[in-house]
Amino acid sequence: MAEATPQTIYLKDYTPFGYQVDEVHLTFHLSPKATRVVSRIEFTPKPDAVDRSFFLHGEQLQLIAAKIDGQPVSPDVTAQGLTCDVPSTPFVWESEVEISPVTNTALEGLYMSNGMYCTQCEAEGFRKITFYPDRPDVMSTFTVRIEGDEKVLLSNGNPSGSGEGWAEWHDPWPKPAYLFALVAGDLINHPDRFTTKSGKDVELNIWVRPGDEDKCAFGMEALIKSMKWDEDVYGLEYDLDIFNIVAVDDFNMGAMENKGLNIFNSSCVLASPETSTDANFERIEAIIAHEYFHNWTGNRITCRDWFQLCLKEGLTVYRDSQFTSDMRSASVKRISDVIDLRGRQFAEDNGPLAHQVRPESFQEINNFYTATIYEKGAEVIGMLKRLVGDEAYTKAVALYFERHDGQACTIEDWLQVFEDSTGRDLSQFSKWYSQAGTPRIKVTDDYLDGTYTLTLEQSTPATPGQPDKDPRVIPVAVGLLGQNGDEVRGTEVLELTEAKQSFSFDGLASKPVPSILREFSAPVIMERESTNAERAFLLAHDSDSFNRWEAGNTLAKEARVAMVLDAAAPDADYLDALTKLVRDDSLDPAFRALVLSPPSQSDLAQTLFERGHTPDPQAIYDAAETFAQTLAEALTDSLPRLYADTTVQGAYSPDAESAGKRDLNARMLSLLTRLDGGEAAARQYDAADNMTQQNAALACLLKAENGETQSQAFYDQWQGDRLVMDKWFGLQVACSAPKKAASAAANLTEHALFDLKNPNRFRAVMGALAMNQAGFHYEGGAGYQLLADNLIALDALNPQTTARMCSAFQTWKRYDSTRQELIRAQLERISATNNLSRDTNEMVSRILN
Ligand code: ARG
Ligand code: ZN
């Protein structure tokens, strides 16, 4: 069993630390098995402290010596930290500890990745480096001396000295310990420079292992664009002489915003046309922006405690989505974000892991780096902006920086600047932070004598620990279309505040067709009776591109639901609309690709479940297959031409327009493969000079079970490239037929290049299995068992990545009793594992309850 009684931490118990930390000096003597960390920390007792106990966090540290004001002391050390008697006047604490980076497989604290030293401290990893008040509201300036043989020795802030075997760094900006970073290795830099709008010259570097230096240019461009954008749009400038990014192969998450020294999962920064897909390029640009934007939203203004995580993450995701919208296509970005939100956040919000955007308790904070905190947190900011207006948003955010720069803040502080600068009462709005669950909005309408009335009724289902919900304020953007497709009322934001409320539009010549929740103005599920004819009308005419896509998406969903429930043939009108749309060259290719992309199988399962059916993953898969086959056949005559016409010629460029074309082209190829058995795909594979086309062709061939030659060729070509090999591992599982997915994944875990210790490789295989819905849930439960085996094996090495992957089981209550029993057995088996981590224990118990 896990720890006897896992401790729960509550927001309501927050108390400030009783000491001010004036300055921190750290010296690292690097050595793989025995790194010595010497700390010298100046503390001043706070005169008004409620709690004066002197507790320093510390885990897996071997204490060598401790002193107060130069005198040796003997603190009481436990597995969580130490306490010590300290003076009531300012004092200097010194300690020396020993740690072992090379055996640190949890990838938290100081660890080694392919021979280089690196750190990950957020959320609570600094306590694995030295004894410290490891909490975000304790901010201080750091001076760091690194002694080691590595060519490159980096830490936060500005360089303040270096010599043979040492380097020193000073960070003038007070920061919490979770933003501390250290990197040491034989690295190569891709350098550039940036001059801020007030004329400050900043040195920029992307540091990589030798061999990766040709994959930095795109990331550097993205960084420079981000720096410029934050100046232009938010007026925010960079504040150090140097900005470093380091690529690391073994990393639990995407990237980390350490002050002046961002550390990235190499998959989120390294890019080249030969090794990265269009999707990789777009994601890299967004993540570089995200981490850079944290310099203000996260670092200059940080969180008081970890319950406030969305304060920095929701806002920073919102900012990076604004950036991507500006760099690329805003409507394509919005549609993709909603697909992602529905796929990940709605699944979370409507299952056992549902939690508030600002949670009020946790056992392990690492389990709360979720789609709810990040993506729903960003949606909440989008709604706030829509409610107060763009100008008021800009004013309130400026006030936020003015009032709170250098502080550790709460959601209350954030909302207060909006209240103060707009005069608006946001108490009802704050329920978006305190109430979990996805609101449902039921819409009915009525037309009489030129007046059209929309009645909106909101309710939110119970979530764990929150049986009853109050009405929230929900911005519902609405436009009205006349019978000929013209817009008769432009977009207007209805503010739904009551449980049930009506809104009227008068002076209309005839009954309009409503376009509701334009741009997806709120993260809700809308329930409204409609017809396929009306949906097709909106797909053809709506001026709001999100709702055009949404109309097509609903048609796609309803067609499949009918196929699953009534064994209906694919809806003919919808097929017809689709074939027209595919051929319509006046439409943006990226938009066409999105309309052609089928609703996810998980989304369909959730829809069926909500309507009172037990989803059968195999039936959902079969419907998707039949639909795609029918569509391909309906397009028989035009597919070869459509495929040829959408093929992007010339040198590869990752820009949004070319990427959109290639996306559409890939969809044409996958339809064409259903007709030609893979001939065109094999040709594309041979001719491809970029990973986007090579990857798409291989996926089609594997799906058609006709890709053995190419899979081998791909392996031979790329076995030396870890990131490309992750694609190879993932594709085998993602493209497997349901029956074969679990055994394909099992075989891959036996492969010489499978490495449990590398999160990217683990996720490539196990993540792909979990995503292959019909494969994961295939009858008999082999998928469940394989995942559980691997989670149990990984938990002993890396709790964070294990716990995160447990969410594959979060939807289990949707399914039939046989599947539920199979999953329950695996969850109980995981839960009964000896020495299970706190991370995994918390996830499994929440999922089981
Ligand atoms: N703050 C990082 C980001 O969103 C995420 C780091 C989270 N890491 C963790 N181990 N929980 O940019
Ligand atoms: Zn972030």
Automatic annotation (TrEMBL):
Listed EC numbers: 3.4.11.2
Coiled coil: none
Domain Peptidase M1 membrane alanine aminopeptidase: 218-431
Keyword annotations: Aminopeptidase, Hydrolase, Metal-binding, Metalloprotease, Protease, Zinc
Domain spans labelled Peptidase M1 alanyl aminopeptidase C-terminal: 533-849
Occurrences of domain Aminopeptidase N-like N-terminal (ranges): 26-179
Catalytic reactions of this protein: Release of an N-terminal amino acid, Xaa-|-Yaa- from a peptide, amide or arylamide. Xaa is preferably Ala, but may be most amino acids including Pro (slow action). When a terminal hydrophobic residue is followed by a prolyl residue, the two may be released as an intact Xaa-Pro dipeptide
Gene Ontology MF term list: aminopeptidase activity
Protein family according to the UniProt entry: Belongs to the peptidase M1 family.
Protein name: Aminopeptidase N
Organism taxonomic ancestry: Bacteria, Pseudomonadati, Pseudomonadota, Alphaproteobacteria, Rhodobacterales
Name of encoding gene: pepN
